[in-house]
Protein backbone atom coordinates (compact mmCIF):
# COMPACT_ATOMS: atom_id res chain seq x y z
CA UNK A 1 0.00 0.00 0.00
CA UNK A 2 3.10 2.22 0.16
CA UNK A 3 2.89 5.10 -2.28
CA UNK A 4 -0.40 3.82 -3.67
CA UNK A 5 -1.54 7.42 -4.12
CA UNK A 6 1.65 8.56 -5.80
CA UNK A 7 0.83 10.62 -8.90
CA UNK A 8 -2.86 9.97 -8.41
CA UNK A 9 -5.00 13.00 -9.27
CA UNK A 10 -7.27 13.76 -6.35
CA UNK A 11 -9.93 16.43 -6.54
CA UNK A 12 -10.83 17.59 -3.03
CA UNK A 13 -14.21 19.28 -2.63
CA UNK A 14 -14.80 21.32 0.51
CA UNK A 15 -18.30 22.39 1.54
CA UNK A 16 -19.26 24.83 4.30
CA UNK A 17 -18.71 23.22 7.67
CA UNK A 18 -16.51 23.93 10.66
CA UNK A 19 -14.60 20.67 9.97
CA UNK A 20 -13.19 22.28 6.80
CA UNK A 21 -10.04 23.22 8.72
CA UNK A 22 -9.26 19.47 9.10
CA UNK A 23 -9.26 19.05 5.31
CA UNK A 24 -6.02 21.03 5.17
CA UNK A 25 -4.31 18.16 7.02
CA UNK A 26 -5.91 15.63 4.63
CA UNK A 27 -4.49 17.53 1.64
CA UNK A 28 -1.09 17.63 3.35
CA UNK A 29 -1.17 13.81 3.69
CA UNK A 30 -2.02 13.47 -0.01
CA UNK A 31 0.81 15.78 -1.02
CA UNK A 32 3.23 13.86 1.21
CA UNK A 33 2.52 10.80 -0.96
CA UNK A 34 3.09 12.89 -4.10
CA UNK A 35 -0.55 12.82 -5.11
CA UNK A 36 -1.62 15.69 -7.36
CA UNK A 37 -4.33 17.71 -5.64
CA UNK A 38 -6.83 20.26 -6.92
CA UNK A 39 -9.29 21.87 -4.56
CA UNK A 40 -12.85 23.01 -5.24
CA UNK A 41 -14.37 25.24 -2.63
CA UNK A 42 -18.09 26.01 -2.33
CA UNK A 43 -19.19 29.55 -1.54
CA UNK A 44 -20.06 28.55 2.05
CA UNK A 45 -16.74 26.75 2.54
CA UNK A 46 -14.78 29.91 1.75
CA UNK A 47 -16.10 31.34 5.05
CA UNK A 48 -14.26 28.57 6.92
CA UNK A 49 -10.96 28.15 5.03
CA UNK A 50 -9.18 30.57 2.79
CA UNK A 51 -8.46 29.79 -0.87
CA UNK A 52 -4.94 31.14 -0.36
CA UNK A 53 -4.14 28.58 2.35
CA UNK A 54 -5.53 25.77 0.20
CA UNK A 55 -3.60 26.98 -2.81
CA UNK A 56 -0.36 26.93 -0.81
CA UNK A 57 -1.03 23.46 0.63
CA UNK A 58 -2.26 21.85 -2.60
CA UNK A 59 0.23 23.55 -4.90
CA UNK A 60 -2.56 24.49 -7.33
CA UNK A 61 -5.00 27.35 -7.80
CA UNK A 62 -8.33 26.72 -6.06
CA UNK A 63 -11.53 26.58 -8.15
CA UNK A 64 -14.60 28.22 -6.68
CA UNK A 65 -17.17 29.03 -9.31
CA UNK A 66 -18.70 27.62 -12.46
CA UNK A 67 -18.65 31.09 -13.90
CA UNK A 68 -15.04 32.10 -13.24
CA UNK A 69 -13.58 32.81 -16.71
CA UNK A 70 -9.98 32.71 -15.41
CA UNK A 71 -10.43 29.27 -13.78
CA UNK A 72 -12.31 27.96 -16.84
CA UNK A 73 -9.45 29.15 -19.02
CA UNK A 74 -6.88 27.29 -16.89
CA UNK A 75 -8.91 24.05 -16.63
CA UNK A 76 -12.58 24.01 -17.60
CA UNK A 77 -15.02 22.20 -15.28
CA UNK A 78 -15.49 19.25 -17.63
CA UNK A 79 -11.72 18.95 -18.00
CA UNK A 80 -11.40 19.00 -14.21
CA UNK A 81 -14.04 16.27 -13.91
CA UNK A 82 -12.10 14.13 -16.41
CA UNK A 83 -8.74 14.96 -14.81
CA UNK A 84 -9.63 13.41 -11.45
CA UNK A 85 -8.72 9.82 -10.54
CA UNK A 86 -10.93 10.29 -7.47
CA UNK A 87 -13.08 13.00 -5.91
CA UNK A 88 -13.17 13.37 -2.13
CA UNK A 89 -15.69 15.73 -0.53
CA UNK A 90 -14.71 16.57 3.01
CA UNK A 91 -16.55 17.90 4.85
CA UNK A 92 -19.84 17.18 3.08
CA UNK A 93 -22.75 19.14 4.55
CA UNK A 94 -26.39 18.03 4.70
CA UNK A 95 -27.12 20.61 2.03
CA UNK A 96 -24.47 19.18 -0.31
CA UNK A 97 -25.66 15.60 0.25
CA UNK A 98 -29.21 16.60 -0.66
CA UNK A 99 -28.22 18.50 -3.79
CA UNK A 100 -25.82 15.78 -4.97
CA UNK A 101 -28.36 13.04 -4.34
CA UNK A 102 -31.01 14.89 -6.30
CA UNK A 103 -28.65 15.30 -9.23
CA UNK A 104 -28.61 19.10 -9.04
CA UNK A 105 -25.76 20.88 -10.75
CA UNK A 106 -26.19 24.33 -9.28
CA UNK A 107 -22.59 24.98 -8.31
CA UNK A 108 -19.13 23.90 -9.46
CA UNK A 109 -18.78 20.96 -7.06
CA UNK A 110 -22.14 19.29 -7.79
CA UNK A 111 -21.55 19.83 -11.51
CA UNK A 112 -18.17 18.13 -11.28
CA UNK A 113 -19.68 15.22 -9.37
CA UNK A 114 -22.20 14.70 -12.16
CA UNK A 115 -19.65 15.12 -14.93
CA UNK A 116 -17.02 12.72 -13.61
CA UNK A 117 -16.58 9.00 -14.09
CA UNK A 118 -14.07 8.87 -11.22
CA UNK A 119 -15.01 7.24 -7.91
CA UNK A 120 -16.45 9.67 -5.35
CA UNK A 121 -15.78 9.60 -1.60
CA UNK A 122 -17.81 11.64 0.86
CA UNK A 123 -16.97 12.46 4.47
CA UNK A 124 -20.18 13.90 5.98
CA UNK A 125 -19.97 16.36 8.86
CA UNK A 126 -22.88 18.02 10.60
CA UNK A 127 -24.69 18.45 13.89
CA UNK A 128 -25.80 15.12 15.37
CA UNK A 129 -29.49 16.08 15.25
CA UNK A 130 -29.21 16.93 11.56
CA UNK A 131 -27.30 13.72 10.86
CA UNK A 132 -30.00 11.63 12.57
CA UNK A 133 -32.79 13.10 10.38
CA UNK A 134 -34.49 10.49 8.23
CA UNK A 135 -34.12 12.64 5.13
CA UNK A 136 -30.33 12.92 5.59
CA UNK A 137 -30.08 9.16 6.13
CA UNK A 138 -32.17 8.57 3.00
CA UNK A 139 -29.81 10.72 0.95
CA UNK A 140 -26.78 8.84 2.32
CA UNK A 141 -28.32 5.46 1.69
CA UNK A 142 -29.27 6.41 -1.86
CA UNK A 143 -25.76 7.74 -2.55
CA UNK A 144 -24.28 4.49 -1.19
CA UNK A 145 -26.51 2.54 -3.56
CA UNK A 146 -25.13 4.60 -6.43
CA UNK A 147 -21.63 3.43 -5.56
CA UNK A 148 -20.50 6.52 -3.65
CA UNK A 149 -18.23 5.66 -0.71
CA UNK A 150 -19.31 7.28 2.55
CA UNK A 151 -16.49 7.69 5.06
CA UNK A 152 -17.65 8.07 8.68
CA UNK A 153 -18.83 10.17 10.33
CA UNK A 154 -17.45 9.62 13.81
CA UNK A 155 -19.27 10.06 17.11
CA UNK A 156 -18.17 12.36 19.88
CA UNK A 157 -18.21 15.92 21.07
CA UNK A 158 -19.13 18.39 18.36
CA UNK A 159 -18.05 21.98 17.73
CA UNK A 160 -21.54 23.15 18.77
CA UNK A 161 -21.24 21.34 22.13
CA UNK A 162 -23.60 18.45 21.23
CA UNK A 163 -22.43 14.88 21.58
CA UNK A 164 -23.30 12.22 18.96
CA UNK A 165 -22.66 10.99 15.42
CA UNK A 166 -21.76 13.67 12.87
CA UNK A 167 -18.10 14.58 13.49
CA UNK A 168 -16.11 14.39 10.27
CA UNK A 169 -13.70 11.44 10.14
CA UNK A 170 -10.12 12.33 10.98
CA UNK A 171 -7.88 13.26 8.01
CA UNK A 172 -5.85 10.07 8.41
CA UNK A 173 -9.06 7.97 8.33
CA UNK A 174 -10.19 9.63 5.10
CA UNK A 175 -6.72 9.17 3.65
CA UNK A 176 -6.68 5.45 4.60
CA UNK A 177 -10.15 4.85 3.14
CA UNK A 178 -9.02 6.40 -0.14
CA UNK A 179 -5.73 4.48 -0.23
CA UNK A 180 -7.57 1.20 0.58
CA UNK A 181 -9.94 1.78 -2.34
CA UNK A 182 -7.05 2.34 -4.75
CA UNK A 183 -5.34 -0.75 -3.35
CA UNK A 184 -8.43 -2.88 -4.04
CA UNK A 185 -8.64 -1.51 -7.58
CA UNK A 186 -4.92 -1.82 -8.19
CA UNK A 187 -3.88 -5.31 -7.17
CA UNK A 188 -0.61 -5.00 -9.10
CA UNK A 189 0.63 -1.91 -7.25
CA UNK A 190 4.30 -2.54 -6.46
CA UNK A 191 4.84 -4.83 -9.50
CA UNK A 192 7.31 -3.48 -12.08
CA UNK A 193 7.07 -4.53 -15.73
CA UNK A 194 9.17 -3.67 -18.79
CA UNK A 195 7.65 -4.41 -22.21
CA UNK A 196 9.11 -4.11 -25.70
CA UNK A 197 6.63 -3.31 -28.48
CA UNK A 198 6.38 -2.42 -32.13
CA UNK A 199 8.88 -2.98 -34.91
CA UNK A 200 12.50 -1.93 -35.15
CA UNK A 201 13.77 -0.03 -38.15
CA UNK A 202 17.24 -0.91 -39.45
CA UNK A 203 18.61 1.85 -41.68
CA UNK A 204 20.04 1.05 -45.11
CA UNK A 205 20.89 4.61 -46.10
CA UNK A 206 19.54 8.04 -45.05
CA UNK A 207 16.15 7.38 -46.71
CA UNK A 208 15.52 3.63 -46.45
CA UNK A 209 15.23 1.01 -43.77
CA UNK A 210 14.36 -2.66 -43.16
CA UNK A 211 11.35 -3.26 -40.92
CA UNK A 212 8.19 -5.36 -40.52
CA UNK A 213 4.41 -5.02 -40.13
CA UNK A 214 4.25 -4.76 -36.34
CA UNK A 215 1.91 -1.92 -35.30
CA UNK A 216 2.72 -2.07 -31.58
CA UNK A 217 -0.98 -2.73 -30.75
CA UNK A 218 -0.34 -5.99 -28.89
CA UNK A 219 2.53 -4.61 -26.76
CA UNK A 220 0.70 -1.35 -26.01
CA UNK A 221 -2.42 -3.28 -24.96
CA UNK A 222 -0.32 -5.35 -22.53
CA UNK A 223 1.28 -2.19 -21.14
CA UNK A 224 -2.15 -0.62 -20.65
CA UNK A 225 -3.60 -3.72 -18.98
CA UNK A 226 -0.73 -3.86 -16.48
CA UNK A 227 -0.88 -0.11 -15.76
CA UNK A 228 -4.64 -0.22 -15.22
CA UNK A 229 -4.12 -2.67 -12.39
CA UNK A 230 -1.55 -0.41 -10.79
CA UNK A 231 1.73 -1.93 -12.02
CA UNK A 232 4.64 0.38 -12.78
CA UNK A 233 5.18 -0.03 -16.51
CA UNK A 234 8.07 0.88 -18.80
CA UNK A 235 7.34 0.51 -22.50
CA UNK A 236 10.35 0.29 -24.80
CA UNK A 237 8.81 1.03 -28.14
CA UNK A 238 9.90 1.01 -31.72
CA UNK A 239 8.35 3.56 -34.11
CA UNK A 240 4.53 3.25 -34.01
CA UNK A 241 1.49 5.48 -34.45
CA UNK A 242 -0.10 4.83 -31.07
CA UNK A 243 -0.84 6.98 -28.03
CA UNK A 244 1.10 5.97 -24.94
CA UNK A 245 -1.39 4.48 -22.42
CA UNK A 246 -1.98 6.47 -19.20
CA UNK A 247 0.55 5.93 -16.39
CA UNK A 248 3.03 4.19 -18.68
CA UNK A 249 6.60 5.41 -19.09
CA UNK A 250 7.60 5.15 -22.75
CA UNK A 251 11.15 4.93 -24.03
CA UNK A 252 11.23 5.46 -27.79
CA UNK A 253 13.85 3.58 -29.83
CA UNK A 254 14.37 2.92 -33.52
CA UNK A 255 16.89 0.13 -34.06
CA UNK A 256 17.33 -3.31 -32.50
CA UNK A 257 20.62 -2.22 -30.98
CA UNK A 258 18.94 0.76 -29.27
CA UNK A 259 16.15 -1.53 -28.06
CA UNK A 260 18.72 -4.00 -26.73
CA UNK A 261 20.52 -1.25 -24.80
CA UNK A 262 17.33 0.10 -23.16
CA UNK A 263 16.04 -3.43 -22.51
CA UNK A 264 19.19 -4.65 -20.76
CA UNK A 265 19.08 -1.59 -18.46
CA UNK A 266 15.37 -2.07 -17.74
CA UNK A 267 15.58 -5.88 -17.33
CA UNK A 268 17.65 -5.73 -14.15
CA UNK A 269 15.40 -3.14 -12.50
CA UNK A 270 11.99 -4.65 -13.32
CA UNK A 271 10.42 -7.81 -11.91
CA UNK A 272 8.83 -8.89 -15.20
CA UNK A 273 10.21 -8.43 -18.73
CA UNK A 274 8.02 -9.04 -21.80
CA UNK A 275 9.44 -9.12 -25.34
CA UNK A 276 6.49 -8.37 -27.61
CA UNK A 277 8.46 -6.32 -30.15
CA UNK A 278 9.11 -7.65 -33.63
CA UNK A 279 12.85 -7.10 -33.54
CA UNK A 280 14.76 -7.31 -36.82
CA UNK A 281 17.03 -10.34 -36.63
CA UNK A 282 19.51 -8.71 -39.01
CA UNK A 283 20.74 -5.20 -39.73
CA UNK A 284 22.70 -3.79 -42.64
CA UNK A 285 26.43 -4.29 -42.04
CA UNK A 286 27.35 -0.83 -43.22
CA UNK A 287 24.79 1.95 -43.45
CA UNK A 288 25.44 3.97 -46.60
CA UNK A 289 26.19 7.59 -45.65
CA UNK A 290 24.41 8.88 -48.78
CA UNK A 291 21.28 7.69 -50.61
CA UNK A 292 22.12 4.59 -52.63
CA UNK A 293 21.68 5.37 -56.33
CA UNK A 294 19.91 3.04 -58.72
CA UNK A 295 22.51 1.12 -60.74
CA UNK A 296 22.29 -2.30 -62.41
CA UNK A 297 19.55 -4.92 -62.09
CA UNK A 298 20.59 -6.25 -58.72
CA UNK A 299 21.63 -4.80 -55.43
CA UNK A 300 23.24 -6.88 -52.70
CA UNK A 301 23.05 -5.79 -49.09
CA UNK A 302 25.22 -7.49 -46.50
CA UNK A 303 23.31 -8.12 -43.28
CA UNK A 304 24.73 -8.95 -39.88
CA UNK A 305 22.97 -10.49 -36.91
CA UNK A 306 21.33 -8.25 -34.31
CA UNK A 307 21.53 -9.10 -30.61
CA UNK A 308 18.70 -11.35 -29.42
CA UNK A 309 17.19 -9.16 -26.71
CA UNK A 310 14.86 -11.65 -25.05
CA UNK A 311 17.51 -14.39 -25.06
CA UNK A 312 20.02 -12.05 -23.41
CA UNK A 313 17.44 -11.13 -20.75
CA UNK A 314 16.54 -14.80 -20.23
CA UNK A 315 20.20 -15.73 -19.76
CA UNK A 316 20.95 -13.02 -17.18
CA UNK A 317 22.65 -14.57 -14.17
CA UNK A 318 21.98 -11.69 -11.78
CA UNK A 319 18.75 -9.72 -11.25
CA UNK A 320 17.06 -11.81 -13.93
CA UNK A 321 13.39 -10.78 -14.30
CA UNK A 322 10.54 -13.22 -14.93
CA UNK A 323 11.00 -13.39 -18.70
CA UNK A 324 8.14 -13.63 -21.21
CA UNK A 325 8.78 -13.95 -24.93
CA UNK A 326 6.55 -14.01 -27.98
CA UNK A 327 6.81 -16.29 -30.98
CA UNK A 328 5.43 -15.13 -34.32
CA UNK A 329 5.15 -18.27 -36.44
CA UNK A 330 3.65 -19.17 -39.82
CA UNK A 331 3.85 -22.97 -39.41
CA UNK A 332 4.38 -25.65 -36.76
CA UNK A 333 3.55 -23.04 -34.10
CA UNK A 334 3.79 -25.26 -31.02
CA UNK A 335 7.15 -26.86 -31.83
CA UNK A 336 8.84 -23.60 -32.82
CA UNK A 337 7.46 -21.83 -29.76
CA UNK A 338 8.57 -24.56 -27.37
CA UNK A 339 12.02 -24.52 -28.96
CA UNK A 340 12.25 -20.73 -28.31
CA UNK A 341 11.05 -21.21 -24.74
CA UNK A 342 14.01 -23.50 -24.04
CA UNK A 343 16.68 -21.93 -26.28
CA UNK A 344 16.04 -18.36 -25.08
CA UNK A 345 15.64 -19.55 -21.48
CA UNK A 346 12.20 -18.00 -21.00
CA UNK A 347 9.63 -18.54 -18.26
CA UNK A 348 6.71 -18.23 -20.64
CA UNK A 349 6.24 -17.92 -24.39
CA UNK A 350 3.17 -16.51 -26.12
CA UNK A 351 2.85 -17.94 -29.59
CA UNK A 352 0.74 -16.43 -32.34
CA UNK A 353 0.06 -17.86 -35.78
CA UNK A 354 0.74 -14.83 -37.96
CA UNK A 355 -0.19 -16.66 -41.18
CA UNK A 356 -3.92 -16.40 -40.39
CA UNK A 357 -5.64 -13.31 -41.81
CA UNK A 358 -7.24 -10.96 -39.27
CA UNK A 359 -4.90 -11.67 -36.39
CA UNK A 360 -1.27 -11.12 -35.39
CA UNK A 361 0.59 -8.29 -37.14
CA UNK A 362 -1.27 -4.94 -37.39
CA UNK A 363 -4.75 -6.36 -36.82
CA UNK A 364 -6.93 -5.36 -33.85
CA UNK A 365 -7.44 -9.00 -32.91
CA UNK A 366 -5.19 -11.84 -31.92
CA UNK A 367 -5.15 -15.33 -30.42
CA UNK A 368 -2.33 -16.81 -28.36
CA UNK A 369 -1.08 -20.19 -27.28
CA UNK A 370 0.89 -19.98 -24.05
CA UNK A 371 3.62 -22.48 -23.19
CA UNK A 372 5.62 -22.64 -19.98
CA UNK A 373 7.77 -25.41 -18.60
CA UNK A 374 4.98 -27.18 -16.76
CA UNK A 375 1.92 -26.31 -18.78
CA UNK A 376 0.11 -24.58 -21.58
CA UNK A 377 -3.05 -22.55 -22.20
CA UNK A 378 -5.02 -21.25 -25.16
CA UNK A 379 -6.35 -17.70 -25.36
CA UNK A 380 -8.89 -17.69 -28.22
CA UNK A 381 -9.28 -14.95 -30.83
CA UNK A 382 -10.47 -11.66 -29.37
CA UNK A 383 -9.54 -8.00 -29.50
CA UNK A 384 -6.02 -7.21 -28.30
CA UNK A 385 -7.31 -5.26 -25.25
CA UNK A 386 -9.21 -8.26 -23.87
CA UNK A 387 -6.45 -10.65 -24.85
CA UNK A 388 -3.93 -8.49 -22.99
CA UNK A 389 -6.08 -8.56 -19.84
CA UNK A 390 -6.25 -12.37 -19.97
CA UNK A 391 -2.52 -12.58 -20.63
CA UNK A 392 -1.72 -10.31 -17.68
CA UNK A 393 -3.64 -12.69 -15.37
CA UNK A 394 -1.64 -15.68 -16.65
CA UNK A 395 1.68 -13.84 -16.33
CA UNK A 396 0.91 -12.69 -12.79
CA UNK A 397 -0.17 -16.18 -11.66
CA UNK A 398 2.96 -17.79 -13.09
CA UNK A 399 5.18 -15.00 -11.74
CA UNK A 400 3.74 -15.36 -8.22
CA UNK A 401 4.08 -19.17 -8.34
CA UNK A 402 7.71 -18.92 -9.48
CA UNK A 403 8.44 -16.32 -6.81
CA UNK A 404 6.85 -18.44 -4.07
CA UNK A 405 8.82 -21.51 -5.20
CA UNK A 406 12.07 -19.52 -5.27
CA UNK A 407 11.39 -18.28 -1.74
CA UNK A 408 10.79 -21.85 -0.50
CA UNK A 409 14.06 -23.14 -2.02
O1 LIG B 1 2.54 -5.19 -33.01
P1 LIG B 1 1.28 -5.84 -33.51
O2 LIG B 1 0.91 -5.36 -34.89
O3 LIG B 1 0.15 -5.72 -32.53
O4 LIG B 1 1.58 -7.38 -33.70
C1 LIG B 1 1.86 -8.18 -32.59
C2 LIG B 1 2.99 -9.16 -32.87
C3 LIG B 1 2.57 -10.15 -33.94
C4 LIG B 1 4.25 -8.38 -33.34
C5 LIG B 1 3.30 -9.87 -31.50
O5 LIG B 1 2.19 -10.57 -31.08
C6 LIG B 1 4.49 -10.82 -31.63
O6 LIG B 1 4.36 -11.96 -32.02
N1 LIG B 1 5.69 -10.33 -31.27
C7 LIG B 1 6.96 -11.06 -31.49
C8 LIG B 1 7.40 -10.91 -32.90
C9 LIG B 1 8.71 -11.65 -33.19
O7 LIG B 1 9.67 -11.01 -33.50
O8 LIG B 1 8.67 -12.94 -32.97
P2 LIG B 1 9.92 -13.95 -33.20
O9 LIG B 1 9.33 -15.31 -33.14
O10 LIG B 1 10.69 -13.55 -34.41
O11 LIG B 1 10.82 -13.69 -31.94
C10 LIG B 1 10.73 -14.46 -30.74
C11 LIG B 1 10.99 -13.61 -29.53
O12 LIG B 1 12.32 -13.09 -29.59
C12 LIG B 1 10.10 -12.40 -29.39
O13 LIG B 1 9.80 -12.22 -28.03
C13 LIG B 1 10.96 -11.24 -29.90
O14 LIG B 1 10.62 -10.01 -29.29
C14 LIG B 1 12.34 -11.71 -29.48
N2 LIG B 1 13.45 -11.21 -30.29
C15 LIG B 1 13.58 -11.56 -31.59
C16 LIG B 1 14.70 -11.14 -32.29
C17 LIG B 1 15.66 -10.36 -31.65
N3 LIG B 1 16.73 -9.94 -32.29
N4 LIG B 1 15.50 -10.02 -30.37
C18 LIG B 1 14.43 -10.44 -29.68
O15 LIG B 1 14.30 -10.13 -28.51
TrEMBL record:
<feature type="binding site">
    <location>
        <position position="291"/>
    </location>
    <ligand>
        <name>CTP</name>
    </ligand>
</feature>
<feature type="binding site">
    <location>
        <begin position="275"/>
        <end position="277"/>
    </location>
    <ligand>
        <name>CTP</name>
    </ligand>
</feature>
<comment type="similarity">
    <text>In the N-terminal section; belongs to the HFCD (homo-oligomeric flavin containing Cys decarboxylase) superfamily.</text>
</comment>
<dbReference type="GO" id="GO:0015941">
    <property type="term" value="P:pantothenate catabolic process"/>
</dbReference>
<comment type="pathway">
    <text>Cofactor biosynthesis; coenzyme A biosynthesis; CoA from (R)-pantothenate: step 3/5.</text>
</comment>
<feature type="region of interest" description="Phosphopantothenoylcysteine decarboxylase">
    <location>
        <begin position="1"/>
        <end position="192"/>
    </location>
</feature>
<feature type="binding site">
    <location>
        <position position="340"/>
    </location>
    <ligand>
        <name>CTP</name>
    </ligand>
</feature>
<feature type="binding site">
    <location>
        <position position="281"/>
    </location>
    <ligand>
        <name>CTP</name>
    </ligand>
</feature>
<dbReference type="GO" id="GO:0004633">
    <property type="term" value="F:phosphopantothenoylcysteine decarboxylase activity"/>
</dbReference>
<feature type="domain" description="Flavoprotein">
    <location>
        <begin position="8"/>
        <end position="181"/>
    </location>
</feature>
<comment type="function">
    <text>Catalyzes two sequential steps in the biosynthesis of coenzyme A. In the first step cysteine is conjugated to 4'-phosphopantothenate to form 4-phosphopantothenoylcysteine. In the second step the latter compound is decarboxylated to form 4'-phosphopantotheine.</text>
</comment>
<feature type="binding site">
    <location>
        <position position="344"/>
    </location>
    <ligand>
        <name>CTP</name>
    </ligand>
</feature>
<dbReference type="InterPro" id="IPR036551">
    <property type="entry name" value="Flavin_trans-like"/>
</dbReference>
<keyword id="KW-0456">Lyase</keyword>
<protein>
    <recommendedName>
        <fullName>Coenzyme A biosynthesis bifunctional protein CoaBC</fullName>
        <ecNumber>4.1.1.36</ecNumber>
        <ecNumber>6.3.2.5</ecNumber>
    </recommendedName>
</protein>
<keyword id="KW-0288">FMN</keyword>
<feature type="region of interest" description="Phosphopantothenate--cysteine ligase">
    <location>
        <begin position="193"/>
        <end position="409"/>
    </location>
</feature>
<comment type="function">
    <text>Catalyzes two steps in the biosynthesis of coenzyme A. In the first step cysteine is conjugated to 4'-phosphopantothenate to form 4-phosphopantothenoylcysteine, in the latter compound is decarboxylated to form 4'-phosphopantotheine.</text>
</comment>
<feature type="binding site">
    <location>
        <position position="326"/>
    </location>
    <ligand>
        <name>CTP</name>
    </ligand>
</feature>
<dbReference type="InterPro" id="IPR035929">
    <property type="entry name" value="CoaB-like_sf"/>
</dbReference>
<dbReference type="GO" id="GO:0010181">
    <property type="term" value="F:FMN binding"/>
</dbReference>
<keyword id="KW-0436">Ligase</keyword>
<feature type="binding site">
    <location>
        <begin position="307"/>
        <end position="310"/>
    </location>
    <ligand>
        <name>CTP</name>
    </ligand>
</feature>
<dbReference type="InterPro" id="IPR007085">
    <property type="entry name" value="DNA/pantothenate-metab_flavo_C"/>
</dbReference>
<dbReference type="GO" id="GO:0046872">
    <property type="term" value="F:metal ion binding"/>
</dbReference>
<dbReference type="InterPro" id="IPR005252">
    <property type="entry name" value="CoaBC"/>
</dbReference>
<keyword id="KW-0460">Magnesium</keyword>
<dbReference type="GO" id="GO:0071513">
    <property type="term" value="C:phosphopantothenoylcysteine decarboxylase complex"/>
</dbReference>
<dbReference type="GO" id="GO:0004632">
    <property type="term" value="F:phosphopantothenate--cysteine ligase activity"/>
</dbReference>
<keyword id="KW-0479">Metal-binding</keyword>
<keyword id="KW-0285">Flavoprotein</keyword>
<feature type="active site" description="Proton donor">
    <location>
        <position position="160"/>
    </location>
</feature>
<dbReference type="GO" id="GO:0015937">
    <property type="term" value="P:coenzyme A biosynthetic process"/>
</dbReference>
<dbReference type="Pfam" id="PF02441">
    <property type="entry name" value="Flavoprotein"/>
</dbReference>
<keyword id="KW-0210">Decarboxylase</keyword>
<comment type="pathway">
    <text>Cofactor biosynthesis; coenzyme A biosynthesis; CoA from (R)-pantothenate: step 2/5.</text>
</comment>
<comment type="similarity">
    <text>In the C-terminal section; belongs to the PPC synthetase family.</text>
</comment>
<feature type="domain" description="DNA/pantothenate metabolism flavoprotein C-terminal">
    <location>
        <begin position="188"/>
        <end position="397"/>
    </location>
</feature>
<dbReference type="InterPro" id="IPR003382">
    <property type="entry name" value="Flavoprotein"/>
</dbReference>
<dbReference type="Pfam" id="PF04127">
    <property type="entry name" value="DFP"/>
</dbReference>
<keyword id="KW-0511">Multifunctional enzyme</keyword>
Amino acid sequence: MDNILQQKRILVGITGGIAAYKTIEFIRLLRKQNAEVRVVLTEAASHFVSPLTLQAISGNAVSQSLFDPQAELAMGHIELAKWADAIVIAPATADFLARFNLGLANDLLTTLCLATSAPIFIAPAMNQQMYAQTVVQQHLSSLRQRGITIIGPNSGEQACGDVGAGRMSEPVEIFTALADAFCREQPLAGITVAITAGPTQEPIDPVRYISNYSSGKMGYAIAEAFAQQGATVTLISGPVNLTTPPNVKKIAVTTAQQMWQQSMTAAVTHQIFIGCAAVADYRVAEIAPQKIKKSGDELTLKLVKNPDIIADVGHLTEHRPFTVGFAAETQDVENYAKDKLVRKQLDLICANDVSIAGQGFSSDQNALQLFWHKGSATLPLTNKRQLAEQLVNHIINLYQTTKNNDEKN
